[in-house]
Amino acid sequence: MDLKKLFGYEGKNVVITGAASGMSRSATELLLELGANVYAIDINPIDLPVKEAFQADLSKKEEIDKVMRELPEKIDAIFLCHGIAYFPGKELQVQKVNFYSQKYMADSLLPRMSEHGSITFISSVGGFGWQQVYDKAVELINLKTWDEAMAWYENHPDLIESAYVFAKQCLESYVTYKCMSPEFINKKIRLNAINPGDTITGLTEDFNKSTSPSGNEKEGEEMINNIFLKSWNGYAAKPEDMGYPLVVIGSDICSYMSGQLIYIDFGLTSSWTSAALLQNNQKSIEEISKAAND
Ligand SMILES: NC(=O)c1ccc[n+]([C@@H]2O[C@H](COP(=O)([O-])OP(=O)(O)OC[C@H]3O[C@@H](n4cnc5c(N)ncnc54)[C@H](O)[C@@H]3O)[C@@H](O)[C@H]2O)c1
Fold first, then answer.
1. Count of structural domains within the chain
2. Could you tell me the CATH number of the domain that includes residue 129?
3. What is the pLDDT of residue 286?
4. Could you tell me if the CB of 194 is within 6 A of ligand 1?
5. Ligand 1: which of 15, 21, 241, 244 to mutate, most ligand atoms within 8 Å of CB?
6. What is the domain extent for residue 18?
7. Which ranges of the chain have pLDDT less than 70?
8. Tens-place pLDDT, residues 95-143
9. What is the Å distance from ligand 1's center to 150 Cα?
């Protein structure tokens, strides 16, 4: 079996963002190995032998528009991976980088995508519980322009207060809401997201600092360990633990997979779901027996 043929990237035009570092860099390395024509974008310089590298700040509409004009007319796969951590005062910036720019690029590049193409996002376990904000996220997704979206954010400070979480929840809502909408399904374009758990990347230092209330890196690291690793005596992932599955999901290997939010966290979020279900079941049993005894 020819593995390159199985992946189906040979000679295909692939756009990937955030490729200078971390998970996206790993994904880019694999895409190159598999023979893709990679068009890579990052705010920082990209030192990989891609077909074309673009340096652009994807939080800015004008810079996104400029890069998109320079991308090929036909695109086969897109990976939207750029992201930042949240620091106080950066609520809107986090929405722009971690969600809105990605939605804007997916929507804008869709007409240039070939049939049976794929768009794959990097969301996060931070987006767990996205169902709770789904109606609000869909309201935002349905706005027609960048400016309308920015005004919507200004009017919803309560939602963007949980900046990183809300942006990732919007990504997960976008995949769920759009995967079978006519503009995607008529061309059989697949839409998926991976949701990584704790991974050592270029973002680790910022995540540690931003998690600690006092900005103390060591304290933040300990808090992250307690949330993500302690319960299973676990360890943080490497960039390729996320980047390689990302490439698989966007490839022909997963040609029938769409609308999926794939948690790559060694099962952690499933354990949260299990605990919540058991707690709710216990509550229901208690409520039923209380009602029966009243
Ligand atoms: N590291 C983790 O533990 C973790 C966990 C869950 C999800 N994620 C998500 O994974 C994705 C990849 O991040 P990573 O962990 O590999 O970190 P990383 O910092 O190594 O990679 C992120 C890349 O995005 C680029 N970027 C940031 N802002 C940009 C902008 N305005 N315009 C263009 N490029 C920009 C950075 O320069 C960087 O190269 C992010 O979306 C992040 O939110 C990370």
1. 1
2. 3.40.50.720
3. 79
4. no
5. 21
6. 3-199+237-268
7. 292
8. 999 999 999 999 999 999 999 999 999 999 999 999 999 999 999 999 9
9. 22
